[in-house]
């Protein structure tokens, strides 16, 4: 008997489940090309520095999927069933769609744990999900972005306010202080095709800064890939140097392009950027990530409901 529920495919980038899975994970990111021993050693060292051989990062996504299921159950009991699909780790996006098909799901909504749309990120997730759904006879509706959802902005405003107060305390009232919003860099060629990623990130940043009462802010990039083509910049390490040279005493790091703690936050910001700030003689405080914040879970649930009402209800 077919399951009457609407399937919800929650997608994210994915992380290895353990240190033993890093090579397979890195090979998948590189489209089947195994990393060199040097590349593998560098990535392994980063994970060792962050997790010390214990790997809790996958749990973040699991908790968010469970949180979304709870939020949907509260809003519409029995209507939705949440499945996971990861871009570079098991269960892959195709696995999530296959699981829905096995349970008789005929209608599905896809949403990514990333508020901002790019053809190279969210767009690629949705393409894979839609193609697999069509092959399995599942009608598929996509939530492409939610970067200005009021509850998302409210959650981020609270985090910026709290962290800014912490930064003020740590600098002893000595200023000035600057908020640096950031997100994962992408190849600069996205600007040539009118990709909305950068514009959406700036819109979120402006809205959060206004709500938090922190008008002295800038947007910067982080975690650029190491390829021959140019990536969007400047990188946060460059921006930190410019900020220190301009006389700032403290920086609030607000990585609004991410929704949970993983390598780009725990290593690139908490280790690399923090070390750079210390060397420059400025304080750096990072906002707490959204994780399973009820406002974020409600944001996702609201977007799923809106998408399903327009398509299936």
UniProtKB/TrEMBL annotation:
Gene3D superfamilies: 3.40.50.1400. SUPFAM superfamilies: Chelatase. Fe-coproporphyrin III binds at residues 13, 30, 46-47, 125. It comes from the Bacteria. It is an enzyme of class 4 (lyase). Fe(2+) binds at residues 184, 264. InterPro entries: Ferrochelatase, Ferrochelatase_AS, Ferrochelatase_C. Pathway: Porphyrin-containing compound metabolism; protoheme biosynthesis. Belongs to the ferrochelatase family. NCBIfam families: hemH. This is Coproporphyrin III ferrochelatase. It comes from Paenibacillus artemisiicola.
């Amino acid at each position: 008997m077919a399951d009457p529920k609407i399937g919800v495919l929650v997608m994210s980038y994915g992380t290895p489940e353990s240190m033993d899975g890093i090579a397979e994970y890195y090979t998948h990111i590189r489209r089947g090309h195994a990393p060199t021993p040097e590349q593998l050693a560098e990535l392994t060292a980063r994970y060792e520095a962050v997790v010390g051989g214990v790997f809790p990062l996958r749990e973040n996504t699991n908790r968010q999927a469970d949180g979304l299921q709870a939020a949907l159950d509260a809003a519409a009991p029995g209507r939705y069933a949440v499945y996971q699909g990861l871009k570079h780790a098991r269960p892959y996006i195709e696995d999530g769609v296959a699981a829905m098909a096995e349970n008789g799901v005929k209608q599905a909504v896809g949403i990514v744990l990333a508020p901002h749309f790019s053809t190279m990120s969210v767009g690629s997730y949705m393409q894979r999900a839609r193609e697999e759904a069509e092959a399995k006879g599942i009608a598929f509706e996509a939530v492409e972005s939610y970067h200005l959802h009021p509850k998302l902005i409210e959650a981020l405003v609270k985090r910026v306010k709290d962290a800014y107060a912490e930064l003020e305390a740590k600098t002893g009232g000595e200023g000035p202080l600057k908020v640096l919003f950031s997100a994962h860099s992408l190849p600069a060629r996205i600007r040539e095709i009118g990709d909305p990623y950068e514009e959406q990130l700036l819109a979120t940043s402006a809205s959060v800064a206004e709500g938090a009462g922190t008008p002295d802010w800038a947007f910067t990039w982080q975690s650029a890939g190491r390829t021959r083509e140019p990536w969007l910049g400047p990188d946060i390490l460059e921006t930190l140097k410019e900020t220190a040279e301009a006389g700032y005493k403290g920086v609030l790091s607000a990585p609004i392009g991410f929704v949970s703690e993983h390598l780009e936050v725990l290593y690139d910001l908490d280790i690399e950027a923090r070390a750079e700030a210390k060397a420059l003689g400025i304080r750096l405080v990072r906002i707490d990530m959204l994780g399973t914040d009820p406002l974020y879970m409600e944001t996702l649930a609201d977007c799923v409901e809106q998408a399903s009402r327009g398509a299936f209800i």
